[in-house]
Amino acid sequence: MSWGDPPATSAAVSERMRRVKVRDTKPEVELRFHLRRLGLTGYRLDRPLGLDGLRRKADVTFVGARVAVFVDGCYWHGCPEHFRPSGANEAWWRAKIERTRARDLDTTERLTAAGWSVVRVWEHDRPDEAAARVAEVVRARGRV
Predict the structure, then answer these.
(1) Are 116 and 137 spatial neighbours (Cβ–Cβ below 8 Å)?
(2) CATH number listed for the domain at residues 21-140
(3) For 86, which of 22, 41, 93, 99 could close a Cys bridge (C-beta 3.0–4.6 Å)?
(4) pLDDT confidence of 74, banded at 50, 70, 90?
């Protein structure tokens, strides 16, 4: 729990939140499978972005092509199609998701200003289609 978080509503909720994966989620693993099938293997995982001391990381990074890929969870990143606020601590969760959306936008803007291309994929996107979008951007940048 970080500063400003409300206490968990129960021990079960606390345990469930502790088990939420940060890396190698099913959508990330499936995307990487399809990237490899398309011949894109020269990527790095969970790489710091080097944005003026900010501790932000891309899920998949093509360093040579300067392409950063983010696989955003529908709940955690406030998917316009699927996000439904929690019933417990609803106001706090809405504010948290809004902060996450603002951070995502800030990250995208900073990377773009630094000459990177950013691809954002929702967890509900078909992984083969998402991988095709990523491949198009990487190949357009001229370095695979």
Answers:
(1) no
(2) 3.40.960.10
(3) 93
(4) confident
